[in-house]
Amino acid sequence: MRKTLSLVALGVSATLISGCGSSVTPTAPPDDAAKAVTITNCGRQVTVNGVPKAAVGLSPSQTELLVRLGLVGSLVGQAQTATAPLPQDVAGMAANVPVLSESGPPSREKLLNVRPDFVYSPTTYEFTAEQGFASLDQLQQAGVAAYVAAGGCRERRMSGTVEDLFIDLENLGRIFAVPDKARVMIEQGRADLAAVDKAVAGRAKPTVAQVFLEGTTVTAIGAGIEYDIIRRAGGSNVFSPQDPQFAKFFAAQITPEALAAKNPDAIVFAVNGPAHKQATVDYLTRTFPEMTAVRTQRLIAIDAADTYPGTLGNISVVREIAQGLYPDAFRS
Question: Domain Fe/B12 periplasmic-binding spans what residues (predicted)?
Fold first, then answer.
């Protein structure tokens, strides 16, 4: 299991997609500079003058996407490497990319020291100047183009969807002049989602509570990409963006009694590793012995990193959850 950032960082701010591993081939940056590309990202205009030659992935998810697009030769840095290990087929290719930070975003000095011309982040949190990180304005002043995963934009954090990843891939294809590679990944992702849609179509939807446990503190998820992941997996979430507690934030602390009252058919819970998974199962089993999800053992653990904005895990975890909700639908 991967380790991941805290739920607070996620807010502020299973298998890989089939076929992706075999498509990782380095792409040499074009010798001639491409025309300037301007895209709208998080409500601002981002202009990239020519194909970037010194990119930084500010989290493993973003580093992975750049490598899978064949751009490892353009990477001058990777960050937050301890939050989620890169897949094996990608890790080897990125082994020589300098590590700028392990548990959190790199400081402004460390980031600018590698002289990037393009920085790719999962959320706006990585650009919080108060935390000592380079802000979007500071990067712009330094001539660095900064791109935030579509689902990690502040205005999208409450309403983001799994398909926001396709916006990122399309934009990266334009920025790095690799539209064909991006198109292949988009088509594969859409095919994987369509396969889940077909498998669960016409079946009665089980009710699902999505939670995150820290000790005995229960946090429910009721909006954002996480909410859409449950929807795409064929679940009927017992919490929703229409609930008052999720009016301004995609997650909210709830009492054990509030969760028990929902009596979901299944519980999906994000974990940071094996110990966290076992602790969560133990708590749920001990606290809710009469809950339907506990009695029927429909407790579905997912890697917390797969719910992070702009990651291929957003797609693979849909199938993972669907398999837990509809095991018969995926038996060959």
Answer: 54-329
